[in-house]
Amino acid sequence: MRARMRRGVAAVLTASALSLTAAACGGSDSGSDGDKKAKDSAAKPLTAAQMKAGLVGVKDLPAGYKVGEETADDEKYTADKKECQPLADFLSQKIAGGTDGGSADFESADQSSMVSQNIVTFPGAGATDYAKKLSTALDACKGFGVGEGDQKMAMTIEKLSATPKAGEESHSFRMKTEIKSLSLKFETNFQVVRQGTGISRVLHVPADASGHKDFDELAKRVGEKFVKAVQS
């Protein structure tokens, strides 16, 4: 049951995206065509090729990982605290309004830990609003509950300020989950990276608390590949 629940939490890996909105120009139209083209390019969603190139493979990860089973969960989870809803949304595979760029799932040889990545892109300013809501939620939300009865899950949120930054913006945190009816507890590390109009979200479920030390290196590798792909 414990291994099955850990596999199920891979569905927590969803992706959303951020888009850069060009700053409003002054009254003069003397700006160069090059500046305008750069702003237009920055506001465009990522291409399918860019998103595919931004996904890590086994060779990009530390030794000991293999390709894992892809998971998905489109169920909508509602937090019992309004300010925590952007974090509860991490429990669902789908993010409204975004274009999915694919995912990659990996697990350790003994299936005790897993790593998942997902990439999404958004047009316009909708994704920027999402990033702002996520940042606000991380500041305001320390914990929340989802589900009812035997399926009730209690989540505790811990910001990870020491995790290496990546891209133009990144947010890292740990979600501690407890399901009392199953006497089950596990912890999941996340990093969300924005580069241009794309978001890469990486999820790491260690076998136990001692495995948290591996997250910084995993996040660094995933973030670097994503940023390089977007900039290409």
Automatic annotation (TrEMBL):
Keywords: Signal. It comes from the Bacteria. Residues 1-24 form the signal peptide. This is Lipoprotein. It comes from Streptomyces inusitatus. The lineage of its organism: Bacteria, Bacillati, Actinomycetota, Actinomycetes, Kitasatosporales.
